[in-house]
Amino acid sequence: MNMMKPERTPACFLHGNYFSRVINAHINYHPGPSSRAEIRSQIVHSDSANANTDATLDAAIAELDDEYKRRATYEQRKLERVALYASKYVRKLHDAYTLKPERDLAPELVQAARDPGILKRLPQRVRNVYKLPILTEQKCTAILQELQNFNDACERNGWPRERPNSMNRHGLLLQELGFAQEFLDPLVAIYIKPIAAALFPDCGGDSLDSFRSFTVVYHPAKDDDEQHDSTLAYHFDDSEVTLNVNLGEAGYEGGEVLFGGGKDDGHGHTTRSAVTLGVGEGILHRGSHCHEVATVTEKPRTNLVVWMRSEKVRRKSCPMCGSSTCFE
Ligand SMILES: O=C(O)CCC(=O)C(=O)O
Ligand SMILES: [Fe+2]
């Protein structure tokens, strides 16, 4: 039973909304002779204006060209990975892939799905961000152990893995590993959708029909190198509503999710409100609610992120580029 539709990639994916670490900005990118002018025209009025030197532009173009190659071959490589994992990977913890509500779900989530009004009545520490227990510790541990087993198999066999998105370098795309059918699909369809419909009807929370799900992994700042991320820059999500659940490990420090303004609120995003998540706890927020992750200073932190989407909303306006033609 597949209760949610397959994930769809917007037409703007090939050229739109690249994240450049070098200039710390999101920009559109077309490789070729006019790429330098294209980048300049986009950063000249932004905070990154001081990055407008030849050396910085060269470094940014190298980085953006790599990202362009990743995107241009994305669909083909995805098909190959899914076929490879399905035929070669031997699952270890089968419980990680299924949903048994009494074993896996926090009672607070089950109750909120029955009566979403509860969440509206609770005091919110950060406006429009709803925090509640989602998964049991046992479920979080099973998922983490299974992902570790999968990563070990990839290392041993030299199998390819894809980064979750252009900002997060480390983590795994959970649908490619088979976590959707019996775990994430029912989790979203039965438990999260009624809550999102009650909390966020204005932005498509009442018509969610697909999602993209991945883990994000951060290590303490001292380990920050190509192998690790310790933080995540300010952004909005490619979602109508996002579910973000901490999987562990207990006792990480830093790593608060810091919320600012809505993506259409202009440039005055000067203040941030912090949310810290314990193991199994999650937040629901609008995808357009901008946020970043504070530097992790102790122990690794792994979160499960579900970017939930509504085709109805996307046919009117793509959240990444605003066009009405990206999902035709
Ligand atoms: O790590 C987190 O808590 C947030 C991740 C996030 O914002 C994202 O992947 O969109
Ligand atoms: Fe995000």
Automatic annotation (TrEMBL):
InterPro entries from the entry? Answer: IPNS-like_FE2OG_OXY, Oxoglu/Fe-dep_dioxygenase_dom
Q: Does the keyword Metal-binding apply?
A: yes
Q: Pfam families recorded for this chain? A: 2OG-FeII_Oxy, OGFOD2-like
- Leader sequence residues: none
Give start and end of each Fe2OG dioxygenase domain: 207-310
Keyword presence, Metal-binding: yes
GO MF terms listed in the record are: L-ascorbic acid binding; metal ion binding; oxidoreductase activity
UniProt keyword annotations, A-Z: Iron, Metal-binding, Oxidoreductase, Vitamin C
By sequence similarity, the record places it as follows: Belongs to the iron/ascorbate-dependent oxidoreductase family.
Q: What protein am I looking at?
A: 2-oxoglutarate and iron-dependent oxygenase domain-containing protein 2
**Which species does the entry assign this protein to?**
Pycnococcus provasolii
